Amino acid sequence: MDNQADSYRFTSQEVLCPAERKAGKTPCCSTLKMFIVALSFAYFSKALSGTYMKSSITQIERRFDLSSSLVGLIDGSFEMGNLLFLALVSHFGAKMHRPRLIAVGCLLMAVGSALTGLPHFFMGRHHPLRPMNLYRCVSLSFPECVKDPGSNMWIYVFLGNALRGIGETPVTPLGISYIDDFAKAENSAFYIACLQTITLLGPMFGFLLGSMCAKLYVDIGFVNVDTVTITPKDARWVGAWWLGFFVSSAIMLLSGIPFWFLPRSLPKQGKENKELPDTQQQHPGITSVHSFLPSLKKLLSTPTYFLLLCGSVLKFNSFIGLLTFKAKYMEQQFGQSASRANFLIGVLNLPVVAVGIFLGGLLMKRYKLSVVAGAQLSFLTSFTAYLLLLLQYGTKCDNIQVAGLTVSYNGTPGISHDKQWLFSECNRNCSCRAEEWDPVCSENGITYVSPCLAGCTGSTGHGKHTMFHNCSCVLLTPPPAEGSASVTLGQCPRGADCSRSFTSYMAVSVLSSFINSLGSTPGYMIIIRCIKPQLKSLALGIQTLVMRTLGGIPAPVYFGAFIDSSCLKWGMKKCGGRGACRLYDSDMYRLIFLGLITCLSGSAYFFIIALIVLLRQQFAKEDKRTAEQAPKPGQIELKVPCDFKKEFPVQTLTGTKESLEPRAMQVTKEAGHEEAVTANELQACPVEQCPDVDRPAEQTLNPANGQTEVQKNTVCDSQHTDAKSDVM
């Protein structure tokens, strides 16, 4: 045995403890892979529901005549409901039946999605247009309005989205901690990468579902679609926003079923034939609330966690703002319909993000990247994507020419927010209302706010094929042969230059999304590897809580408020009051939208750089300490735990085996053991097989007598109370 001192750890563990333990029975369906499959479907379902909400923002805004800031508040209600219970579920949920808590969450999300789409059935039919005779340049008196009975129904959308947020609370922190508790350390990153990759199928299908529903008219099945005179590209078009919420509700309901049948705990991967630890077999259902605050204090006092938290909040703000208003940006900047914008995001951006996340996890597993290397990879990919984002400032389209808003009636460019500019000598005698938005397009490429403001006095055709004639405000060069200028329904299309700019924008967007996603899994593993195991679930929950509170709730609101400041033409509700915006200043929209994203992301890099420096210093110290504590060749260590008498601290004795025998006998006798462990009793076992018996004892509260008891943290505590020594 002396010749094997360098590669074996000498221990009395095999003398004091039996080598074999009775294997516990593995419950039915208690495999880790089955849990990962079920959790992947739950992640897919909740991601589909959440991204469908994002894709329906424009439709909800138009249907309820809301501003971007208010619809951003509705979108943020998900985070409001989520943060109400997130911290408590993350802390106490780890001690309870985690799969069943996830099942309850899926049920709540299903109910919340159904409640979100329910207001459609209590509202009247959507009537975005007035009778055709009110469009023309004639003197008319406007009828009195009748208040829309569904004007305040958006509150139910708010509540349904909040309930969905409450249901999502246990899924992420408890699911990730469940996997990490029972998976091998080298497989944990790969499993989480697979989980996130499958999860991204949810947003992809969510945006595709949003694209399909945006094509369908809101009152489909109740009105004749052929009589609708507007198209999906019109700012007044409202798609069947409610339909997707019922589809996502049914999927969420199905995703929660498997968790009702999964066990409370699983065997540690690679140790399926060993009995589960007592801490996993006897999870208390209720734990003391006094343990929460010390755990939270210990967590927030960890510098690496705090820096990661600050950087994550800033990045999450930019991500939420981008995800919420990206489709709307594509509509207003490049003239795309909501349906096409959602479709392109679903089939171009999200698939490459899924591939990037999967490759990032594969890199972690293939090259076994350390925490520092993972943080550096995450920073490098994120910063490269950030530089590509700056190129989007140059991909733009000019404002569409709208008489009285972006150009004068004689064609002179100029932005105006004054509604008096909508009136000119050519339409002074018409009974026109500046609040109306019924755009028509002339042959000269200029859009007019309405046929009335274009000075039109006659019309022909029906429905979508209606044309207006004798438009006195339309200036054509040369003048028409018949002496009469005509306009057609809808805004004028954008030019070919705008189509090329949009192609460049999508190419840069897809490439930056892929590069940024490569560092997603390595960055996520920082919190897994740098936090103590007993704080892991709480750390994930607090991170999600803070990101929801400081990012998920305020980001859509202030993004929407800044976007509202670039509005040139507001819609009008039936009985007065400002409705949804109909036309934006596209140049101002671009600067505000991209400016907010770049400022928030750029600020986050200061914290990320500080985190990397701190991690490098921390792991350099640990490597140095490990090298110093390693026994020299030909020597072994004797560690005597303090389990026997509290007055004896852990003692480490270094030397050869022959010289340690008398010292081992003396120390173990002083520790209260009647018969000292001699060198002949020390057995040899490979280093990786030797259990750690040198963990400090824990104090627990016995609920039966209210007394504090010492609980030993060694694998032999359940069978022996005598002395233990570990010779290394």
UniProtKB/TrEMBL annotation:
<dbReference type="InterPro" id="IPR002350">
    <property type="entry name" value="Kazal_dom"/>
</dbReference>
<dbReference type="InterPro" id="IPR020846">
    <property type="entry name" value="MFS_dom"/>
</dbReference>
<keyword id="KW-1003">Cell membrane</keyword>
<dbReference type="GO" id="GO:0015125">
    <property type="term" value="F:bile acid transmembrane transporter activity"/>
</dbReference>
<feature type="transmembrane region" description="Helical">
    <location>
        <begin position="369"/>
        <end position="391"/>
    </location>
</feature>
<dbReference type="InterPro" id="IPR036058">
    <property type="entry name" value="Kazal_dom_sf"/>
</dbReference>
<dbReference type="InterPro" id="IPR036259">
    <property type="entry name" value="MFS_trans_sf"/>
</dbReference>
<feature type="transmembrane region" description="Helical">
    <location>
        <begin position="240"/>
        <end position="261"/>
    </location>
</feature>
<keyword id="KW-0813">Transport</keyword>
<keyword id="KW-0406">Ion transport</keyword>
<feature type="region of interest" description="Disordered">
    <location>
        <begin position="693"/>
        <end position="728"/>
    </location>
</feature>
<feature type="transmembrane region" description="Helical">
    <location>
        <begin position="304"/>
        <end position="323"/>
    </location>
</feature>
<dbReference type="Pfam" id="PF03137">
    <property type="entry name" value="OATP"/>
</dbReference>
<feature type="transmembrane region" description="Helical">
    <location>
        <begin position="101"/>
        <end position="122"/>
    </location>
</feature>
<dbReference type="GO" id="GO:0015347">
    <property type="term" value="F:sodium-independent organic anion transmembrane transporter activity"/>
</dbReference>
<feature type="compositionally biased region" description="Polar residues">
    <location>
        <begin position="699"/>
        <end position="718"/>
    </location>
</feature>
<feature type="transmembrane region" description="Helical">
    <location>
        <begin position="592"/>
        <end position="615"/>
    </location>
</feature>
<dbReference type="GO" id="GO:0016323">
    <property type="term" value="C:basolateral plasma membrane"/>
</dbReference>
<comment type="similarity">
    <text>Belongs to the organo anion transporter (TC 2.A.60) family.</text>
</comment>
<keyword id="KW-0472">Membrane</keyword>
<keyword id="KW-1015">Disulfide bond</keyword>
<keyword id="KW-0812">Transmembrane</keyword>
<feature type="transmembrane region" description="Helical">
    <location>
        <begin position="189"/>
        <end position="209"/>
    </location>
</feature>
<feature type="domain" description="Major facilitator superfamily (MFS) profile">
    <location>
        <begin position="35"/>
        <end position="613"/>
    </location>
</feature>
<dbReference type="InterPro" id="IPR004156">
    <property type="entry name" value="OATP"/>
</dbReference>
<protein>
    <recommendedName>
        <fullName>Solute carrier organic anion transporter family member</fullName>
    </recommendedName>
</protein>
<feature type="domain" description="Kazal-like">
    <location>
        <begin position="420"/>
        <end position="475"/>
    </location>
</feature>
<keyword id="KW-1133">Transmembrane helix</keyword>
<dbReference type="Pfam" id="PF07648">
    <property type="entry name" value="Kazal_2"/>
</dbReference>
<dbReference type="GO" id="GO:0006811">
    <property type="term" value="P:monoatomic ion transport"/>
</dbReference>
<feature type="compositionally biased region" description="Basic and acidic residues">
    <location>
        <begin position="719"/>
        <end position="728"/>
    </location>
</feature>
<dbReference type="GO" id="GO:0043252">
    <property type="term" value="P:sodium-independent organic anion transport"/>
</dbReference>
<feature type="transmembrane region" description="Helical">
    <location>
        <begin position="343"/>
        <end position="363"/>
    </location>
</feature>
